[in-house]
């Protein structure tokens, strides 16, 4: 009753920000993402009748503070499988946890995949996507590789709120350069950030209302392999999300000075004709998405910025993998 699964992180090009139902974790908007090849979580789940409670070891440390969220997600798997055994979860990320590199996305996707496999359940990917969504909205997308379309859905029970693959990783190779501008876990998580934005930002309504057009534009750009069109919609979606966060009460500024330096440099490189655009999640790291031929220069330029502590270069990768 043990299995190990690798799930990769993903970044949204059209962002998810805001919940339609907090208890069921149904997003207020859909999202479109790319799965990153070189950033992953490996998770082993072992169900054992001898365990009195669930246990979580993350990166070699017992994480009691994260256990409740993990147990709640395991409960959904147990309920669906009709099993009542406690589990030991041993998980590690090959990148910094909780700093806007989507560790919850790869983490909950790997958890659900490993738990189902440990119980010998071969559920369809769509079911895994729905279960992963309950752990973290962005995790629903990490079940799949390449370009992924997450549907907001309209059912009250969240049964049509799942991700689906749009195009596989090899069909349009892109390189993502992650500029790490700060280490350590962020002070305000995305859930709290969304609640504050929805409750207090005067721009939240505009964010929701303008979102379907961004989804349509991104799908069309991916279908047509139109990099300039994808760049325009992705940067706009990112800045609208951050505008809603910054204008909340109390305000939420996920950026630091180096974040802004990266945006400026990417803008200059773009003006020179390089195929690159930026996106930023609920943290200070900047992801520069490039056509592969632009990646060398973009990487070199970002590395030169004094506030950039490290750079990770990755292509697009596959969905869940059983190890
Ligand atoms: O999956 P969550 O609940 O941590 O939310 C993710 C929110 C963003 O990363 C900021 C945007 C997104 O779509 O991934």
Keywords:
25% strand; four-stranded antiparallel sheet; Alpha-Beta Plaits; globular; alpha+beta; eight-stranded mixed sheet; 39% helix; binds (3R)-3-hydroxy-3-methyl-5-(phosphonooxy)pentanoic acid; 2 domains; Ribosomal Protein S5, domain 2; 8 helices; 14 strands; 323 residues
CATH architecture label name of the largest domain: 2-Layer Sandwich
Q: Radius of gyration, rounded?
A: 19 Å
Bound molecules: (3R)-3-hydroxy-3-methyl-5-(phosphonooxy)pentanoic acid
Count of runs of 4 or more consecutive helical residues: 8
N- to C-terminal distance: 14 Å
Mean pLDDT: 96
Find the count of extended strands (DSSP E, 2+ residues). 14
Main sheet makeup: 8 strands, mixed
Structural class: alpha+beta
Structural write-up:
- By secondary structure, this protein is of the alpha+beta class.
- The protein folds into two domains: 2-170, Ribosomal Protein S5, domain 2 (2-Layer Sandwich), CATH 3.30.230; 175-314, GHMP kinase, C-terminal domain (Alpha-Beta Plaits, 2-Layer Sandwich).
- Helices cover 39% and strands 25% of the residues.
- Strand 2 (19-21) and strand 3 form a beta hairpin.
- Helix 1 (64-81) packs antiparallel against helix 3.
- The radius of gyration is 19 Å and the shape is globular.
- The mean pLDDT is 96.
- The structure holds (3R)-3-hydroxy-3-methyl-5-(phosphonooxy)pentanoic acid (PMV).
């Amino acid at each position: 009753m043990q299995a190990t699964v690798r799930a990769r992180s993903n970044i949204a090009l059209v962002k998810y920000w805001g919940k339609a139902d907090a208890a069921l974790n149904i997003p207020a908007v859909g999202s479109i993402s790319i799965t990153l090849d070189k950033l992953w979580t490996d998770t082993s789940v072992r169900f054992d009748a001898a365990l009195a409670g669930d246990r979580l070891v993350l990166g070699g440390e017992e994480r009691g503070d994260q256990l409740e969220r993990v147990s709640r997600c395991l409960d959904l798997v147990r309920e669906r499988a009709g099993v009542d055994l406690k589990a030991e979860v041993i998980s590690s990320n090959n990148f910094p946890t909780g700093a806007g590199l989507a560790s919850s996305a790869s983490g909950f996707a790997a958890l659900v995949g490993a738990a189902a496999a440990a119980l010998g359940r071969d559920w369809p990917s769509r079911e895994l996507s729905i279960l992963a969504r309950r752990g973290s909205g962005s995790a629903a997308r990490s079940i799949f590789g390449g370009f992924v379309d997450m549907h907001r859905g309209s059912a009250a029970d969240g049964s049509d709120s799942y991700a689906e693959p749009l195009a596989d990783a090899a069909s349009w190779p892109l390189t993502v350069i992650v500029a790490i501008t700060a280490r350590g876990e962020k002070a305000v998580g995305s859930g709290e950030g969304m609640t504050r934005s929805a409750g207090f930002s005067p721009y939240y309504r505009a964010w929701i209302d303008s979102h379907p057009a961004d989804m349509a534009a991104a799908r069309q750009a991916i279908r047509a392999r139109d990099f300039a069109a994808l760049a325009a919609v992705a940067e706009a979606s990112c800045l609208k999300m951050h505008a809603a966060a910054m204008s909340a009460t109390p305000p939420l500024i996920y950026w630091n000075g180096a974040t802004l330096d990266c945006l400026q440099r990417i803008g200059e490189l773009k003006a020179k004709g390089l195929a690159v655009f930026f996106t930023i999640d609920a943290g200070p790291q900047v992801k520069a998405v490039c056509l592969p031929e632009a990646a060398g220069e973009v990487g070199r330029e970002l590395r030169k910025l004094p506030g950039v502590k490290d750079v990770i270069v990755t292509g697009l990768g596959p969905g869940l993998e059983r190890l």
